[in-house]
Amino acid sequence: MKKLIVIISTFGLVLAFYASQAQADHVAFANATGSQQVTDPLGGITTDGSCQVYLELVPMTHIKYKVECSNISGITQAHIHAGRALDSGAPVAFLFGLTDATGPINGTLGEGIIEGADIVMEGVELGDLMNMIRGDEAYVNIHTDANPAGEVRGQIAGRVNDNLIVSESYTATGTGSQEIGGDPPNLAGVVTDATCFAAFRVSGLADDGLKYKLKCWNITGVTQAHIHMGKASVNGPNVVFLFDGREAPTGDTNGLLRAADGSSVSKGTLRGGPDGDLIGELSGEPISALVNELRNDNAYINVHTDANGSGEVRGQISFVDSIGF
């Protein structure tokens, strides 16, 4: 049976989720925001709420999970659903609820384990759910009384396997199914085994710089990576480089992106101002202008490759105080 501990905290959002690599097959993450909700027409849900979900996959045994949320209230249930980023799929397993609507949540919503008996989708077993998570075929959906179909949603990036511990302010989990191409938009995304995880931290005052680190797994031929402005269901302009390998694309990568000639690596500190790193619509602006876009669920990472020039992996950026993995 599901072992669920629900803790409601009003002391701010502090996440700690340490995966035992000796036992865990993979660690998976989802950053859930309103703009990632699939609505008709596309555009998502306008909300200040966000949630982060951390999953530790232990083969043949269970999935350990933790759900942290901020600036959200009235939660009635939360699930892992089957589907790619722009699909509307059925629930596979509960992460929280069913329950009466919660009060305001700024902390841990729930944590526990998912075992085979907890799977609610007919014909699906625990191993099938793990394969969905690894294959960019699962997302998290947080339902509220104000938005019963879901207020915040996030695609699960399920091939992260790393012992790094970071402490950041914003994160993004990138997968192929979150890509949107063409006009009208192609909602099928990109079929790829690649996933990426980006972490950003404001260094002192916002205008002192935005530290970042971008790691990707199961990807090759990366030519460039950016932060773009835009909601999850639209394509927006790039406003800063996170990696530039246009002259020397990467080889097979599982970790930091490194240009073949050593000219670029996907970590550093982004700075604003007339001689800063911001380009396009934010050129010359202080770095706080970019941070404001992050705060407003209006920015995403996009990782471009030789095989997928417009982007192979994409992920919406959302707020989080700290995260260990």
CATH architecture grouping of the largest domain:
Sandwich
User: What's the number of structural domains?
Assistant: 2
Helix segment count? 2
Task: Give the CA-CA distance, first to last residue.
Answer: 26 Å
- State the helical fraction: under 10%
Q: How would you describe the overall organization of this protein?
A:
The chain has 325 residues and is mainly beta. It has two domains: 157 residues, no CATH class; 163 residues, Immunoglobulin-like (Sandwich), CATH 2.60.40. Strands 12, 13, 14, 15, 16, 17, 18, 19 and 20 form a nine-stranded antiparallel sheet that branches. Strand 19 and strand 20 form a beta hairpin. The longest helix has 9 residues.
Task: Name the features.
325 residues, mainly beta, Immunoglobulin-like, 2 domains, 9-stranded antiparallel β-sheet, 21 strands, 6% helix, 42% strand, disordered N terminus
What is shown here, in short?
The chain is mostly beta strands.
List the helices and strands and how they pair.
Elements: E1 3-5, E2 26-33, E3 50-58, E4 62-72, E5 75-82, E6 91-97, E7 105-114, H1 126-134, E8 138-144, E9 152-155, E10 157-160, E11 165-166, E12 170-175, E13 195-202, E14 210-219, E15 222-229, E16 238-244, E17 253-256, E18 267-270, H2 287-295, E19 299-305, E20 313-319, E21 323-324
Antiparallel strand pairs: 1-7, 2-3, 2-10, 3-4, 4-7, 5-6, 5-8, 8-9, 11-21, 12-13, 12-20, 13-14, 14-17, 14-18, 15-16, 15-19, 19-20
